[in-house]
Amino acid sequence: MSIDLLVQALLNGFGLAMVYVLVALGLTLIFSILEIINFAHGEFYMLGGYVTYYAYALFGLNYFATLGLAILTVGLAGVVAERLIFHDLRGKALNAFIVSLGLLWVMQAGAQLAFGVLDKPVPSAFSGIVRVLGLVISVERLVVTLSAIVLIVALYLFLRLSRPGRAMRAVAQDADAAALQGVNIEAVAALGFGVGCALAGGAGGLLAPVFAVSPAMGALPVVKAFIIIIVGGMGSLPGAVLGGLLLGGVEGLGALFMGSAAVNILGFLMVIAVLLVRPRGLVGGA
Amino acid sequence: MELSRSAGVPSAGVALIALAAAALPLVTRDSYYLDVATTILMNLTLTMSFRLQVSTGQINMAHISFMGIGAYASALLVTRVGLSFWATLWIGPLVAAALAVPIGSVALRVSGPYYFLITFAFSEVVRLFFNNFFEGLFGGPSGLVGIPKPDRLLGLAFDGKLELYGLMAVLCVGVALALVRLDHSRFGLTAGAIRQADLLAETLGVNVFRYKLTTFVLGSFIAGLAGVFFAHFRRVLHSSDFGLEPMVLLVVFTVIGGTGSVWGPVVGTILMTIASELLRELHHYEILVFGAVLILTMLFAPEGLVALPGTARRLLRRLRGRAPAAAGVGLAP
Amino acid sequence: MLLELRGVSRRFGGLLAVADLSMTVAGGAIHGLIGPNGAGKSTVFNLITGVIPLTAGEVFFKGERTSGLRPSEICRRGIARTFQATTLFREYTVLQNVLVAAHLVTTPGLASALFWSRPYRERERRARDRGRTLLEALGLGPVASQVADTLPHRDQKALALTMVLATGAELVILDEPMAGLAAQEKAETTSVLRRLREQGVTVLLVEHDMKAVMGVCDTVTVLDHGVRIAEGTPREIQTNPAVIEAYLGADEPGA
User: Fold this and answer.
1) How many domains is chain A partitioned into structurally?
2) Is residue A169 part of a domain?
3) What's phi and psi for C88, nearest 5 deg?
4) Nearest CA to B145 among B43, B72, B66, B254?
5) Which residues of B31-44 are buried (b: 16+ CB within 10 A; e: fewer)?
6) Confidence band of B327 (pLDDT split at 50, 70, 90)
7) Chain B partners (3+ C-beta pairs within 8 A)
8) Shortest alpha-carbon distance between residue B191 and chain C (Å)
9) Sheet of strand C3-12, all strands in order from the earlier edge strand to the far edge
């Protein structure tokens, strides 16, 4: 097998993985601030997909403006969900998890009723391919991957430099200490949940033209995101990026040798293997 | 989970289930009602065994997979090997329990959120395996078909709804009896102690890992039993029968009734299976309603319907400002 | 020696909470472990009972290595403990708490519970009787069927102690058994500790109340910043210059 083929396979894997990292970062951000595993996270991704369908495919809004709109809308939806539902469940992992299962159903069934069960195709914003050093890359995938990376960097800068971002990190580290220093925990929790969901919404917007939009579209990325955050270590942002690269690499290479179902199993086997060796994930604490 | 004060077996509730189950055919032999009743009993077996694990603080998202393992094992042993249903009725659960030992040992190395994610990962591996591998054996996406009904036993033919209903009733009552006894025994007491304060239990000499693994394996055995029945009752198996949706349904059934005792899942399962039948024509609304009920239950009555009187009383007392905040939340540590 | 720590260390990130600590606890004694806040006393307890792993060193109990074992196995070998923030099974009654703690003495078998056999019921009855006897001895008889969460602080402390005794441990480790108790209650606890010593149970305790420690302990070990700075009889400790300096440098010792 040629090196080119291997590199091409890795590149294919990494491309989509960056979008899944976006979903995973939202999940892990919410977990680190509220100690909640939001199983309905994929449904916020789905919302982002529908915003894109209506704004971009139906009303012809600019692709990047649509992406911004998806991020904003879904972020708002996240804030509402936190205020209405998850607000009292901070730190009650089991109850919150069960509630998120309920939310998953409500949002999925709601989408089926509101948007219909059929797949909605979203046309590609970019066409054509570029050839770099003998590798073939579709322009659409390239834009999607680069946009995901831009959003990841934006999140990093937001958490490092902005006031609310720093407050989130403080709460994630030690909520009590942060509260003593005058951080408004309630506001940070709502904002954190909103930002986490916004990331999922952005990912949904990015992948809407790649896959079709449907009420159940959130299942796949959320499963990938779970794999990524367990492998990387829950609550760790660099861990999520590392987990995403690993998953992308494994799936990209796996696709050379086996069918897509077998590739899906690879990710789960990786989770089990990592938890056996390092129960807190690769970048998790002791 | 009160340790019974009397030395007798706390079986009055089980006797009630048995009586109700026995009385149904006297009221109606309509095949639709028998079907619904059989489904209730099958779901009951699943939810009670799921609660056994919840009682030590585990939300095992792979529980439904062990039902699947029992179902596929029995279906294949009957159709391919030619074993009798009455043999696979025991072999199926044993296969599920045997696989539960290594899977549980791995999953129970982690706790809290990691536990439900790793068990979810396991359940996806099992589902994808049934769906995509050995298509000649498991039937792949189109399912495993042609599973026969149970064969004759002691001159009794199991080709009618009534006989199948009777069989499920016997299995369910047996499981209920075992689980109620367990719940009221020292084993159940220790399990509840682990849920309340696992570190304290461990330092008092309770091997928490072994207790959790025991409930995991026993729960998987019972799930496998329900699976064997499911295979020969429905007579066709799809990997999606054991996917996330039925698993969430299982959580809904169990949690809505409450996990404080065996009776929570009983009440929850009966109510929700009937609700599910009533909403059958409106599938989207069904899961919308179930999802909403799940959220509302966890937010406002986290100890479940069975504990509602107590919850309401505590709420009232708190409103009047006489008592400190409510003692405990159903599930959360 | 009943308990022996050899070169025990524990690091949390960059902080060395316990540094190369060696100490012994003699059988049949009441042994105090004192030191200013943050000296590493509770960490030492967690290390002995296996709640957290050691960074370096070994722990021996009755000549056998116990470091590296599960907490439940360490308890089975004969070491039981209380926690600083009194921990109980809050939803259970007082008697149920004790029954869980008696787990090791009367192991509940899975199979026998399923079959509800006569020997099983007989064993259960004996376990309950034993639990009641213990509760009577510590003055909790009247509240045996009360839910633990509703007990007053004093009774919760007493229950935690009863549970530790119910395990049948030879060495009981008590993290601040007097904290939050009134003078009269402290005196009662002191007499319970003395009674334990008479029965051959060894006690290792952390306590901030210096008067109580000096009054009841046979031997006292002083920790400061994870290091052992002194050990001896209460009289020797009270006049030890290193100890006085450690305490003057930090906060006042408790009343």
Assistant:
1) 1
2) yes
3) -135, 170
4) B72
5) eebbebbbbbbbbb
6) very low
7) A, C
8) 9
9) C15-25, C3-12, C56-61, C64-65
Would you say the pTM of this structure is higher than 0.90? no
Q: How far is CA B39 from CA A106, B148, B257, in A?
A: 24, 18, 17
DSSP state of C142: G
The alpha carbon of B184 is separated from its chain's Cα centroid by a whole number of angstroms, namely: 18
Inform me whether the C-beta atom of residue B325 falls under 8 Å from chain C C-beta atoms. no
Tokens of C239: 């006049």
Report the DSSP beta bridge partners of residue C81.
Answer: C173
Per residue in B239-288, pLDDT (tens digit) is 888 988 889 888 888 888 887 777 888 888 888 888 888 877 776 788 88
Q: In this predicted structure, which of A174-183, B100-109, C116-125 has the lowest mean pLDDT?
A: C116-125
Integer angstrom CA distances of residue B56 from A102, B194, B200: 22, 6, 14
Percent of chain A at pLDDT > 90 equals 28
State how far the Cα of B167 lies from the Cα of B159, in Å rounded to an integer. Answer: 12
Please report, as a single letter, which amino acid is at residue B275: A
Q: Is residue A282 part of a domain?
A: no
- Of C114, C112, C5, C99, the closest CA to residue C54 belongs to C5
Return residues 192-211 of A near B (CB < 8 Å): none
Please state the ipTM of this predicted complex.
Answer: 0.88
**Cβ contacts (< 8 Å) between B50 and chain A: which residues?**
none
Give the pLDDT confidence of B38-91 residue by residue, as tens digits: 999 999 999 999 998 888 888 899 999 999 999 999 999 988 888 888 989 999
Cβ of C51 within 8 Å of Cβ of B199? The answer is yes
Rg of chain B on CA atoms, in Å: 20
Distance of CA B55 to CAs A95, B63, B213, Å? Answer: 14, 14, 13
Give the C-alpha separation, B211 to A88, whole Å.
Answer: 31
A274, part of any domain: no
pLDDT tens figures, A18-36: 899 999 999 999 988 888 8
Bridge partners, C228 (sequence order): C223
Tokens of residue B111, six digits: 């706790």
| Mean pLDDT, chain A, whole residue set | 86
Domain extent listing, chain B = 12-243
Of B181, B189, B328, the CB nearest to C100: B189
Chain A nearest CA to B141, separation (Å): 11
Assess contact for A214 and A51: CB atoms under 8 A. no
Q: Which residues fall within 8 angstroms of residue C164, CB to CB, at 6 or more apart?
A: B204, C80, C81, C82, C101, C172, C174
Distances (CA, A) of C40 to C21, C36, C46: 10, 9, 10
Tell me which of B315 and C44 has the higher pLDDT. Answer: C44
Q: What is the pLDDT of residues A46-105, one digit of tens each?
A: 999 999 998 888 888 888 888 999 999 999 999 999 999 888 887 777 788 889 989 998
In this structure, chain B runs to a length of 333
CATH topology of domain C1-78+169-255: Rossmann fold (3.40.50)
In chain C, what are the domain boundaries? 1-78+169-255, 88-162
A83 belongs to a structural domain? yes
**Are B182 and C113 a contacting pair at CB < 8 A?**
yes
Inter-CA distances, B7 with A18, B3, C92, C121, Å: 62, 10, 19, 6
Does A114 contact chain B (CB < 8 Å)? no
The two structure tokens encoding residue A60: 């012809």
Mutate to test the interface with B, among A38, A83, A98, A115 (most CBs of B within 10 A): A98
Strand C219-224 to C30-34 pairing: parallel
